[in-house]
Every structure is written in structure tokens, then in C-alpha cells.
């Protein structure tokens, strides 16, 4: 086993921890004793802010509601956590004390893993300790009490661990609160997580951390912030290039391509000639500017595109490199203000380019497996390895027959369609160069009509 006094050691998630490595040895089944229930006020506060009752949020399937009764209908029950003790495990081998990482040191875009047991009550030997992988999609609340991830989790994973990996060891970052989230009957495709640091802090308010002998009652060590985590800092600068655009009660995203120009989708503008633009140059500042609609494609255009010009130019803008080619299967990020809009900072989801659709041998549509939600329209797709801009999000797929949206099937406009026109405009300042977007041929119209319009993206409510 590892030295309990070594706060820098880690572990791999399993029912048994031995010297930081995953082991097949598992403790026998044991009756658990409930020691206490503890709420997390920091998590509760941000939960109430983001998950408004007006948006008709729910976190359980219809089957679970019928099985579990009114308790499941009370979303505030999600902010309570239980502390269990298994007396039958006291003499088991292994059982090294886990380490946790403070959520204040997490960054968006960092890879994370979950280890939990979906459907384990039906067949524990099959489903026990299954893994999933995603990224930190967003962080919110005091000390980042709430973590949102695009890791795919299933019913029964509630209470499972969420981990950050460093040098082949896993460090606990949070507990799964809700693996499935619906907003007005639309599946969001994000998993709701509470920071384990916030939970432990609140448990400590009711229990003494040390008993009279000096032995630690809460067997956790925090981990230094200098962990080596792959992918850290890659997205930080790119996040500042994404803007929130508001037009009345309609809102969406946009990507800043120069000190005064923003690319977005036509439907985000809601037919207005001016929009409110909110930009976060860093985590501590928010700029609110006025934008004038320079150009917007016609309603019958194949492309849903607009160019907004800021009345005041930005003093510093991160330079974005436009991609010149696209590769099916390559890793990408989509960044935008989907789901929560101004109530939360910009979100990130990860996936791959699932398809590159061409017409006349030229890319005219990109599809990705990133989770895309209402409000993400106009947001950028970035290549994971280089940060190059691949395109802007237009919509996701919707089955109008059953009224279901599919966040992991979405459609974007390749930057190669727009970049040549932007370059000409930069030199000539002639807005008519964008009229080419209104003259697409019938084949292009047919390609984009197959995907249809998604009203929840076009009319996202604040």
C-alpha cells in the first residue's frame, strides 16, 4: 500500500486501491451504514441559478419517476450527499486512501474520466466500475462547486467518481449528481457533477476532521495544483474569441475574427440590425459592446451566416488561424454559450469530425459528434491539436415526428466557405462580396434542407 502521509500520491479508481494502481481484487459485499446526510450550499446556490424552473428542467427518465415517486421529482434533492460506512471492509487488503484535486485548479477542456456502475443492481458483475471519458465542459459556482462534463454517463452512475488523470494515476475531482439532463424535454447530453472538495468541506462543518488521537477521520488529501495534465492551457486563449450575442430575448454565439468583426448565424440576430455583444477577455472581465449587422444571408439562402461589426474595436484579439482542410475522425472542440447563455460562462464540448460533406469537390458542411445545444449557434469548431478554426455551428438534428433533438449530430459551415470572402472584404471594405452566399446552386440548397431547421436553436430563450 501507499504511504498515507504522502499527499502527492494518487490512485486508480476501483473498489480497491493499492499503491495507486488498478487491481482486480475487490472487497466482499458488505452492508453499509448511513452515518450522515449533508447538503452542499455552494452547489445548491449555483444549481438554482442555472437550472430555472421556467426552463422545465428534469433529471430523471419517466421510468425512474414512476419507480421512485415524488423524491425524484424534487430536484433540490440533488444537492444532498450521503456518508456511508462499510464495517465489513475494515480488514480487507488494499484500501489505500484516495487523493482529490481541488476543482478551483480545473480548467475547461481538460480530459476527465468517470468510474461508476450503471445498472449494477441488475448485473453487478457486468456493469461494476465501468469507465467513460469526456472533458471539463464548464465550471460554475463558488470554488467551482459545479462541474459539467460531456462524458457519457448512464442511469445508476449517480454518486460515481469523476477523475483527473496525471502520469497514469487518477485523482478524484467530483461525484456524479445527474447523468441525464433534460431541458423542456430536450436531452442536453451533459453530466452534472459536484466538486468533491465542496462536499468534503461541508462534511467537515459537521464532523471534526481529526479525532482526539489525531487520526484523520476524513481519509482524503488534496493534491497540489502542479499536476501534469495533458491538454491543459490549450483552450484558454481560444475561449476569449467566443462572444455572446443577444437580440431581444434571442441569444446565440459568435467567433471574433478581427478587432471589429464577428462571425455568427443569421437566425441569432432575430431580424435585428443591431445586437448586444458580451465578450470575456479573461475570467475576471466582461465587456458589453454594441454590434451592427454588416451582412446577413437571406432566409432562403443555403447558408445561415451573418457578419457583425463592433462599434468599438477591441484593443487585443487572439489571432485565429483558419483551417484549409478537414479530416474525418479528427478531434475537435465546439465552444459556445449553449444551454445557459448569460447565466454561465462559455461551454466547451469535445468530439470528432464525423463527416465532411462536399459539393463540386468543395466542403460545404461539417458534421461532428460534439454535444451542441440551443444557444451554441454561431460558435466555433476548433481543431484540438492546433487550435485552427474549422467552421461555425449552424444547428443540430431534430426529429420533428417525436420532437426529439440529437445534440451529438450537428451541422456546421466550413470556414473555407467564408474565409476567401472575409479576406476580400478586409482589403476592399465592399460588403457586396458576401452576396455570393445568397447565390448557392440547387444541390447545395438540397443538402442543407435535408437537415431542416431547429426551432430550439433559432429561438433560444434567455
Automatic annotation (TrEMBL):
What compartments host this protein? Peroxisome
| Any GO molecular function | serine-type endopeptidase activity
Q: What are the GO BP annotations of this UniProt entry?
A: protein processing; regulation of fatty acid beta-oxidation
Give a yes or no for keyword ATP-binding in this entry.
no
Q: Under which main EC class is this enzyme filed? A: hydrolase
* Keyword terms, alphabetized: Hydrolase, Peroxisome, Protease, Serine protease, Signal
Q: Which domain of life is it from?
A: Eukaryota
* Xref: SUPFAM superfamilies: Trypsin-like serine proteases
Cellular compartments per GO CC? peroxisomal matrix
* Enzyme Commission code: 3.4.21.-
Primary subcellular site in the record, as a coarse category: other
- Record keyword Signal present: yes
Name residues in a coiled coil. none
Family statement drawn from the similarity comment of this UniProt entry: Belongs to the peptidase S1B family.
Protein's job: Peroxisomal protease that mediates both the removal of the leader peptide from proteins containing a PTS2 target sequence and processes several PTS1-containing proteins. Catalyzes the processing of PTS1-proteins involved in the peroxisomal beta-oxidation of fatty acids.
Q: Which PANTHER family match?
A: PEROXISOMAL LEADER PEPTIDE-PROCESSING PROTEASE, SERINE PROTEASE-RELATED
Give the protein's recorded name. Answer: Serine protease
> What is the species of this protein?
Callorhinchus milii
Amino acid at each position: 500500500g501507499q504511504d498515507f502521509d504522502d499527499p502527492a500520491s494518487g490512485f486508480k479508481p476501483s473498489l480497491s486501491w493499492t499503491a495507486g494502481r488498478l487491481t482486480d481484487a475487490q472487497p466482499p459485499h458488505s452492508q453499509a451504514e448511513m452515518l450522515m446526510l449533508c447538503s452542499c450550499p455552494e452547489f445548491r446556490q449555483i444549481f438554482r441559478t442555472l437550472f430555472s424552473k421556467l426552463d422545465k428542467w428534469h433529471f430523471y427518465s419517466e421510468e425512474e419517476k414512476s419507480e421512485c415517486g415524488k423524491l425524484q421529482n424534487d430536484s433540490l434533492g440533488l444537492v444532498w450527499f450521503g456518508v456511508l460506512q462499510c464495517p465489513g471492509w475494515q480488514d480487507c487488503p488494499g484500501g489505500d486512501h484516495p487523493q482529490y484535486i481541488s476543482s478551483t485548479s480545473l480548467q475547461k477542456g481538460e480530459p476527465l474520466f468517470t468510474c461508476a456502475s450503471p445498472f449494477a443492481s441488475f448485473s453487478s458483475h457486468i456493469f461494476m466500475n465501468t469507465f467513460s471519458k469526456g472533458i471539463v465542459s464548464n465550471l460554475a459556482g463558488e470554488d467551482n462547486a459545479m462541474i459539467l462534463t460531456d462524458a457519457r454517463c448512464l442511469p445508476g452512475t449517480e454518486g460515481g467518481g469523476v477523475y483527473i488523470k496525471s502520469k497514469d494515476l487518477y485523482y478524484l475531482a467530483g461525484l456524479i449528481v445527474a447523468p441525464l439532463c433534460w431541458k423542456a424535454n430536450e436531452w442536453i447530453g451533459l453530466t452534472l457533477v459536484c466538486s468533491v472538495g465542496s462536499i468534503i468541506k461541508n462534511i467537515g462543518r459537521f464532523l471534526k476532521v481529526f479525532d482526539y488521537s489525531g487520526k484523520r477521520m476524513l481519509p482524503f488529501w488534496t493534491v497540489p495544483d502542479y499536476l501534469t495534465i495533458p491538454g491543459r492551457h490549450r483552450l484558454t486563449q481560444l475561449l476569449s474569441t467566443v462572444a455572446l450575442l443577444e437580440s431581444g430575448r434571442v441569444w446565440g454565439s459568435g467567433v471574433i475574427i478581427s478587432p471589429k468583426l464577428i462571425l455568427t448565424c443569421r437566425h441569432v440576430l432575430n431580424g435585428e440590425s443591431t445586437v448586444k455583444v458580451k465578450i470575456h477577455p479573461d475570467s475576471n472581465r466582461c465587456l458589453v459592446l454594441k454590434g451592427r449587422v454588416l451582412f446577413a444571408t437571406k432566409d432562403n439562402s443555403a447558408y445561415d451566416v451573418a457578419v457583425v461589426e463592433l462599434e468599438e474595436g477591441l484593443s487585443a484579439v487572439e489571432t485565429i488561424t483558419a483551417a484549409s482542410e478537414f479530416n474525418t475522425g479528427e478531434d475537435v472542440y465546439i465552444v459556445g454559450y449553449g444551454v445557459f447563455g448569460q447565466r454561465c460562462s462559455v461551454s466547451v464540448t469535445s468530439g470528432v469530425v464525423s463527416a465532411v460533406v462536399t459539393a463540386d469537390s468543395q466542403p460545404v458542411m461539417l458534421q461532428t459528434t460534439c454535444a451542441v445545444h440551443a444557444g451554441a449557434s454561431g460558435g466555433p469548431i476548433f481543431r484540438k491539436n492546433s487550435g485552427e478554426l474549422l467552421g461555425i455551428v449552424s444547428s443540430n438534428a431534430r426529429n420533428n415526428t417525436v420532437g426529439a433533438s440529437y445534440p451529438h449530430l450537428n451541422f456546421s459551415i466550413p470556414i473555407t466557405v467564408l474565409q476567401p470572402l472575409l479576406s476580400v472584404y478586409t482589403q476592399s471594405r465592399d460588403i457586396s462580396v458576401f452576396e455570393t452566399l445568397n447565390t448557392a446552386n440547387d444541390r447545395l440548397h438540397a443538402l442543407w434542407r435535408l437537415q431542416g431547421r431547429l426551432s430550439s436553436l433559432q429561438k433560444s430563450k434567455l
